[in-house]
Amino acid sequence: MRHGDKINNLGRTASHRKALMSNMACSLIEHKRIFTTLAKAKALRTYVEPIINRSKDDSTHSRRTVFAYLKSKEIVSLLFKEVSVKVAERNGGYTRIIKTGNRQGDAAEMALIELVDFNEIYSNGKTAKVEKAKSTRRSRAKKNN
Q: Phi/psi at 105 (nearest 5 deg)?
């Protein structure tokens, strides 16, 4: 029975799961978005959001705490230099999960997890909007007559 067991074990031992989450968090911070299964994306969200929240306070203690989770000096410095500056005014919700359908081989649900403030498509007025050419069938029919 699994009464009160809320963690998704992802079919791995505790040490393997810890290494998986650390590696995926490093990849997410480095590349700003990664493509993975939906279950791993949901597990990664609960792992990485407290780390990003910790990075808002740039102190030695918070750097050491984040390093204990990520195990990479380069990623920790990238997190504190780039990511924490962009999320400084945000109170939470640093990641976005977008479902992308099922994988061909085993029909696993796939998802794209990304850092919210690093997507230029969804930013409010910061980039130029893509204009769609106005062309309807009716207007073409009038030109042909």
A: -70, -50
Query: Distance between CA 64 and CA 145 in Å, rounded?
Result: 73
Instruction: Write down the pLDDT at residue 128.
Output: 43
Where b means 16+ CB within 10 Å and e means fewer, 14-48 reads: eeebeebbbebbbbbbeeeebebebebbebbbebb
**CA 106 – CA 19 distance, rounded (Å):** 24
C-alpha torsion sign, points 68, 71, 76, 79: negative
Q: Which domains does the chain have, with CATH numbers?
A: 14-123 (3.90.1030.10)
pLDDT at 2: 83
DSSP structural state of residue 22:
H
Low-confidence ranges of the chain (pLDDT < 50): 127-131
| Alpha carbon distance 116, 52 (integer Å) | 12
pTM of the model: 0.81
Query: Which pLDDT does position 31 carry in this prediction?
Result: 96
| pLDDT for position 125 | 55
Give the distance between the most distant pair of CA atoms in the chain. 75
